Amino acid sequence: MSAEQDQILDQVTSNDYKYGFYTDIEVDALPKGLNEDIIRMISEKKSEPEFMLEFRLKAYRHWKTMKMPNWAHLKLPEINYQDIIYYAAPKQRATYNGLEEVDPELLATFEKLGIPLEEQKHLSGVAVDAVMDSVSVKTTFRETLAELGIIFCSFSEAVQEHPDLVKKYMGSVVPYTDNYFAALNSAVFSDGSFCYIPKGVRCPMELSTYFRINAFNTGQFERTLIIADDDSYVSYLEGCTAPQRDENRLHAAIVEIINHDNAEVKYSTVQNWYPGNKEGKGGIFNFVTKRGICKGDNSKISWTQVETGSAITWKYPSCILKGENTIGEFYSVAVTNNHQQADTGTKMIHIGKNSRSTIISKGISAGFGQNSYRGLVKVLKNADNARNFTQCDSLLLGDQCGAHTFPYLEIDNESAIIEHEATTSKIGEDQIFYCNQRGINTENAIGLIINGYAKEVLNKLPMEFAVEAQKLLQISLEGSVG
Amino acid sequence: MLEIKNLHVAIDGKEILKGIDLSVKPGEVHAIMGPNGSGKSTLAAILAGRNTFEVTKGSVKYLNENLLDLAPEDRARKGIFLGFQYPVEIPGVSMVNFMKTAINEQRKFNNLEPLSASDFLKLMREKKEIVEITSSLTNRSVNEGFSGGEKKKNEIFQMAILEPRLAILDETDSGLDIDALRIVANGVNKLKNKDNATIIITHYQRLLEHIIPDFVHVLYKGKIVRSSSKELALELEEKGYEWLKD
Predict the structure, then answer these.
(1) Shortest CA distance from A427: residue in chain B
(2) Helix (H) or strand (E) holding A194
(3) What digits encode the pLDDT tens for the residues A65-78?
(4) Complex ipTM, two decimals?
(5) Beta-carbon pairs below 8 A across chains A and B
(6) Average pLDDT in the A346-350 region?
(7) A464 CB contacts (<8 Å, ≥6 apart)?
(8) Is residue B71 less than 8 Å (CB to CB) from chain A?
(9) A249, A297, A305: which is closest to A272 by C-alpha?
(10) Measured between beta carbons, which residues in chain A are less than 8 angstroms from residue B92?
(11) B101–chain A Cβ distance below 8 A for any pair
(12) Which end of chain A has the least Cβ crowding within 10 Å, N or C?
């Protein structure tokens, strides 16, 4: 790690010291490798209660019995799990009283990453909880939120301060037995975000978490838990960026959402991790398990994702529609350029009567990119009048890339109405020339066409995110045509 | 304004235009007529900068510049407008967004500030009247689900907004009913002034009853075989193109 980065980390951490997360940390990182001792050390470093350690160990023991899944339409590299550092926490030193005391260089780094922690964010009404190398470093707006009884903090903090909630809900939607990467995450997760919206509260601002991966050879294993109590509402944003780096890095996150009666959670993601270089070298491996349960009647979960980064994306944000009249939505744009691979989609599990789900998936493939939609719509026996609408579009730029669609339907109730539409198209030279002829150059023309294609999804994002996402789409496809 | 000299154009080695000469001055309206496959649309495309064709010989000067050296978007920004025979659909891109992008690209090129949202909407409102199109059309995606007539009206609408110096209308009249034809022709006439020029490519004399050309050229097998005043169009209508064969 460079001295400069060291310094930044120091400053960041020190800024957070006042919250008292890690008062007793002397080392930067645990040694490489994974075994029960490492897990015990992680838990100890974080001063976790006994139930957490048990959870981790059970997950680890289960993980050891599992094999890496190979059903996805992905060329997966060998991953040496013993060659990864599972815990890295920055050192801490002095404390600051405010942002003005923070090294401007650090602020500039955040700026580059699109994390405006300062006033502009304050004005735009977004609370930010930034995760930098496994430790939450900054939380804003907490007081405003606290007045409403909303808890929005790092996962570690929640473990200390709200152990009952964590114990009750952690692993209730994504059990550690769920899949290989969920088991791994459950064993070694370092931090993440926790959010609780109490009964009847409508969260007045978009909650936002920015993640990034920075430390050398450190896999990042976040865990997010969102609980929306009866009649509550929250819109949650997750955005990711990573600085360029030349070796592959593993990322396996878990997000769990629990909705009680009439609750609504809107979860939006813009994922822009380092995708590797043009030759396909480097880049992040992104294996994510995201799932929400509409436990209570009339509750709703809406996933929106814009996936432009990572060398490999393996991700299926899903909804379990357990209550009656529940609604699950999945809106996705996934871009694969150069040698990127994505296998992404959703699962909609209809259990409750009159449950409804909508799936809109827009894949964009360029270069040698391989883009797969994989989706399951499952209607259980008692889910009378379940409805699903799926639209699954693929757009190809160039003739070396691929688009694949794997829809699965398991319908056990005759009253279900399921619709599936799929299209594949190419950006036509005619479309580009038409734009050219109106004075719009090819690069902007592609941006325009791509954003038009993805509009249905982009429209679901909160305003400030939508603008960012539009730019991102165009940037990530730069140079792919013409 | 436009000087085409001995222009030869080929596609996949097959010669389509075999030595075109054409001179267009500001304020003029030229009609280019000719049977299917004579090279009319190729001429329009080559002027707009379509790269599927290869210029094998000859030159094109536009405002004293070598037009063939310019990228298509730069030609557009310098005032060349092509009314497409088959306007493409661009799903999800609203007409408002599309035209705003287009006009601001043009303004940027000319070192002008981009139009504010309100100025732009005002401009849209003004120009809509010229081609009698409704807001519902401009609120939709570019050409998406437009009828044939609506697409053509939309081309003239874009022309009205961009105010080109040289408009090339490639069979804008094809597929239009009488009313749409009148509206399109009126639009073109309203936009005409002493500083701009129009090249109208058409099969039929019909459009030329509404837009009076200064010159009529007949393109046949890649060559202009006849250039004359507007009466030529009537003669063609009567006798057909066969008559010019010799």
Answers:
(1) B90
(2) strand A191-197
(3) 999 888 888 888 88
(4) 0.95
(5) 76
(6) 97
(7) A124, A126
(8) yes
(9) A305
(10) 451-456
(11) yes
(12) C
